[in-house]
Design goal:
The complex is a heterodimer of chains A (411) and B (451).
Chain A: E1 5-8, E2 14-19, E3 25-32, H1 46-53, H2 65-70, E4 74-79, E5 84-91, H3 95-107, H4 113-132, H5 139-147, H6 162-166, H7 170-180, E6 186-192, H8 196-207, E7 230-236, E8 242-248, H9 255-268, H10 274-282, E9 286-293, E10 301-308, H11 314-330, H12 335-351, H13 356-368, H14 374-383, H15 387-397, E11 404-410
Parallel strand pairs in A: 2-6, 7-11
Antiparallel strand pairs in A: 1-2, 3-5, 3-6, 4-5, 8-10, 8-11, 9-10
Helix pairs in contact in A: 1-4, 3-8, 9-15, 11-15, 12-14
Chain B: E1 18-21, E2 27-32, E3 38-45, H1 57-64, H2 74-83, E4 87-92, E5 97-104, H3 108-120, H4 126-144, H5 147-160, H6 180-190, E6 196-202, H7 206-217, H8 244-251, E7 259-263, E8 269-277, H9 286-297, H10 303-311, E9 315-323, E10 330-338, H11 342-358, H12 363-381, H13 386-399, H14 408-418, H15 421-431, E11 438-443
Parallel strand pairs in B: 2-6, 7-11
Antiparallel strand pairs in B: 1-2, 3-5, 3-6, 4-5, 8-10, 8-11, 9-10
Classes of the chains: A alpha+beta (411), B alpha+beta (451).
């Protein structure tokens, strides 16, 4: 249970504060509601490139990291499809330093052509490291492009091609900053052993003067319903063949999302799960299997995948995955299996909130979803599902005409 | 806006740790906090891959502990733990095998029932070994398709010698040569109470605490003829549990420094590892060299990050660190750089080392490094589980003959604080000589490195 208080500054910045009693550390999390889904198809990868630029100094603080090192702080950031998250952890005595730096870079960013060019090269090397110089590096980008035809989720956060990153201009940087980086489009969350009123006072001091800006109200192109199965087969120099099958699910806060999460857990959560017991242990077809939901804010994907053992036929393996997908539609999921899933979500929630950083980050995320109360209420949502509702969800979700299959074949 | 004043914490507040030695000689450290609803138990055996006489035995024993016991099948173990959301994590390095269990305190009893089976009565079923070996072979083949894995293996071989217990890597097919007898024998030889310690972080429940200690007290001693008496505090002595053959091998290190280029045709990046063997963590210069490694490439403001990433854009990341092994210890720099930048990246890394040998580190920069190291310790200690990691480190240090006492972490902080620019200069002059370093590059041989 995470207690928290909320407050909105007059410029629209939402502030969420958790008093982390007994902790020596403070965590400051600033989440901007902008990710790869806000990019145009000609300039993909920009949200992530911009995240890198946020560390390149402002008019008042040319070296962002220097005061943080002095304050014993560590900081980093990540960008995903939906949002960009910046976090700092430091001794609680230095909380003000973190808030000062975050408030400062919300309005004072100072990017020169030289900084932009150097950072583009870093991001292109990140692209090379993650996607080009790795076995299976292009598997996920190929899979996304297969499963989405319209929605910006069809490209990876790093971008469709390094050329898009290389082509970014200072004009793009300025426009993006103005449009997305303002208080009305951000959430500040803090976890520290400090009373919320004091946190709100510090937030007012360091963010209160940032101009209000406007919450971007653009329409994100939504994916039309899928009516036909899709399939892609590629051959690569990799040690083993991978089969991935994805189905569209609902948006993050609807029941379909939770049903998908529970089904993925029944299929592949832990080594007692069905896929692991049936297809890795009892009938060894795969060296590893997985099932998960992408969990994006807009309608996401339910994915099952497996790495084939040497000598196993692709058809047998693919049919075996389908067999498990049919089993959750045709037979009743037992009460014990449901209770297990409920217990697991409860444990994962508790284990996911053990330090101030997790707490601040989770509070920011649930505020972005529009309902911070979910941070304490989601376990009850998981426990509210009946076997019948799950079976109905599985039947709706795992329709063959809604499948997207990638065969990533070992040459 | 005026910058807020920065406050420097001078020491780290620690939860009090209770130190026990059980009747079987097993040292146990307990951290109790009545407020917490989660628990963690870690067991550490001096049973890493360096002591194995057949490839992959050490990791296989550890990974099969939970794949069948006298009372429970692999499936029952998985089912019982998953049912209450408890989990375990097994990690193996060259020296140690570590098994960590975590659970919600309210599910303590059903979890401990399984944990005690896994710790006390594993059976290593032959059919589970078969499945594991096949699965694991594929996994290793996949890992070895990554340039970074190839670099790690080639680097270990170059530093220590390809036959040395710290340098060897074996073909993945060796998994198929393992037998159940190998596992049972290794378990009997290395998984005794006199080759192990435990650390737990638990809530305030007295019955739970007693049950854990009762279970740990049942771990038998190693099956062997003579048992050397445990040293003070019951911590096994350095080298105990390592048979004499591999011990003598551990002490003869390869002193040939070399440049190795592992071909990876058409790689768009090169994986670079540069390093040298130095000394293990009880050496008087170890902490000083940790500071040197941090100045060089151990934090985001480090010289290598500024040079290779921020100024030149050669890489997404570069880091350097002192790595501790029980009988050695080495300095390592690692990075993945654009293929065409390979040669200059290597040159820049050596240029930054040379700069540490010729110029004093500015006070201000050194202060940043000290504070970033202090902050790192505080971050690890935040939350109920990090303190277990610190205790494990201190008990390993004690096992290796160093001072792993109550003040371990604050001693570390004090030693870091005491390092001066002159110390850094002396250490750099002594230990960062170009000719003592080994270079490993995995990448397209078009971009070779001239040395």
């Amino acid at each position: 249970m995470i207690t928290y208080s909320e407050h909105t500054l007059s410029n629209g910045l939402r502030v969420v504060a958790h008093r982390a009693r007994g902790s020596e550390m403070a965590a400051v999390n600033v989440l901007y509601c902008v990710g790869a889904r806000n990019e145009s198809p000609e300039k993909t990868g920009f949200a992530h490139l911009f995240e890198h630029l946020m560390f390149r100094g402002t008019r008042d603080v040319p070296d962002f990291d220097a005061p943080l090192h002095k304050a014993c702080a560590e900081n980093n950031a990540f960008t995903n499809n939906d949002y960009t998250d910046y976090y700092i952890t430091l001794p609680k005595e230095n909380l003000a330093t973190a808030l000062w730096l975050e408030g400062d870079r919300m309005s004072g960013l100072d990017i020169t052509p030289g900084k932009l060019e150097a950072e583009k090269r870093v991001v292109i090397e990140e692209y090379n490291q993650r996607y080009k110089n790795q076995p299976y590096g292009d598997m996920w980008p190929l899979f996304k492009a297969l499963a989405y035809k319209v929605h910006p989720y069809r490209w990876p956060t790093i971008g469709l091609t390094p050329d898009h990153v290389a082509g970014a201009t200072l004009g793009d940087v300025e426009a993006f900053y103005r449009r997305f980086y303002n208080p009305a489009n951000a959430v500040l969350s803090v976890a520290a052993d400090v009373v919320p009123e004091e946190i709100f006072g510090l937030a007012e001091r360091y963010f209160g003067t940032v101009e209000r800006g406007r919450k971007p109200d653009e329409e994100i192109p939504q994916e039309p319903p899928q009516i036909e199965a899709r399939r892609l087969e590629v051959e690569r120099d990799v040690p083993s063949t991978v089969i991935m099958i994805a189905f569209p699910t609902g948006p993050r806060t609807c029941r379909e999302h939770y049903a998908g999460d529970i089904l993925s857990d029944i299929l592949a959560g832990g080594s007692s799960s069905r896929l692991y017991q049936n297809l890795v242990k009892n009938r060894p077809l795969f060296s590893s299997v997985n099932a998960y939901i992408t969990g994006d804010i807009d309608p996401g994907l339910f994915v099952v995948s497996g790495n084939l053992l040497a000598g196993v036929s692709e058809d047998d393996a693919e049919q075996a995955l389908w067999g498990e997908l049919r089993a959750v539609q045709n037979s009743v999921i037992g009460d014990r299996e449901l209770e297990k899933v409920g217990n697991k979500f409860e444990a994962e929630t508790v284990f996911g909130e053990l330090n101030v950083m997790n707490k601040a980050m989770n509070l920011g995320y649930y505020s972005l979803l529009g309902n911070p109360e979910l941070i304490n209420g989601e376990v009850a949502v998981y426990r509210s599902f009946t076997p019948d509702e799950l079976r109905a969800s599985a039947s709706k979700m795992f329709a063959p005409e809604k499948s997207n299959t990638l065969i990533y074949r070992s040459r | 806006m005026i910058a807020p004043e920065i406050v420097l914490p001078r020491s780290v507040a620690l939860l009090s740790v209770e130190r026990l030695v059980l009747d079987n000689g097993l040292p146990v450290h307990i951290i109790e906090d009545a407020e917490q609803s989660v628990a963690r138990l870690s067991l550490v055996w001096a049973a890493g891959s360096a002591v194995q006489s057949k490839p992959f035995v050490a990791s296989t024993v550890l990974n099969l502990l939970a794949e069948g016991t006298e009372r429970f099948s692999a499936r029952e173990i998985a089912e019982r733990l998953d049912f209450v959301g408890s989990y375990f994590d097994a990690t193996l390095d060259r020296d140690y095998a570590v098994m960590t269990f975590c659970w919600l305190e309210k599910f303590f009893a059903p979890t401990l029932e399984v944990v005690s089976e896994v710790v006390l009565r594993p059976t290593f079923p032959a059919d589970e070994l078969d499945i594991y070996a096949r699965k694991r072979m594929e996994w290793l083949a996949l890992e070895r398709a990554k340039p970074s894995t190839r670099a790690r293996e080639a680097f270990a071989a170059a530093l220590f010698g390809a036959e040395h217990p710290y340098g060897v890597s074996s073909p993945q097919g060796e998994y198929l040569n393992l037998t159940r007898d190998d596992l049972v024998g290794f378990h009997r030889q290395f998984y005794g109470a006199d080759n192990c310690f435990a650390v737990c972080s638990i809530g305030g429940d007295a019955a739970g605490r007693k049950a854990i200690l009762d279970m740990l007290a049942q771990i038998p001693l190693l099956a062997r003829d003579k048992i050397s008496p445990p040293c003070e505090g019951g911590v096994p002595q350095s080298g105990e549990g390592v048979d004499s053959a591999s011990r003598s091998q551990l002490s003869t290190l390869n002193s040939q420094f070399s440049t190795v280029h592992v071909p990876f045709p058409d790689a768009v990046q090169s994986s670079i590892r540069i390093g040298r063997v130095l000394f293990p963590r009880q050496h008087p210069d170890f902490v000083g060299m940790q500071v040197v490694a941090t100045v060089l490439g151990g934090y985001f403001g480090s010289r290598l990050v500024r040079n290779l990433r921020e100024q030149r854009g050669y890489t997404y990341g570069v880091m350097s660190a002192m790595v501790n092994l029980r009988a050695a210890g080495y300095l390592a720099v690692s990075t993945e750089v654009a293929a065409e930048a390979t040669e200059d990246a290597v040159a820049q890394i050596f240029a930054e080392m040379e700069r540490l040998r010729t110029e004093l580190v500015p006070q201000d920069e050194l202060e940043n490094v000290r504070r970033s190291m202090l902050g790192e310790v505080m971050r690890i200690l935040d939350g109920p589980f990090g303190v277990v990691d610190v205790q494990i480190e201190s008990m390993q240090l004690a096992m290796e003959g160093g001072d792993g006492g109550q003040e371990y972490i604050n001693n570390f902080i004090r030693r870091v604080e005491a390092i001066t620019p002159e110390d850094v200069h002396r250490l750099a002059r002594q230990y960062l000589r170009r000719e003592d370093f080994t270079v490993v590059v995995v990448g397209d041989t078009k971009y070779s490195v001239s040395v």
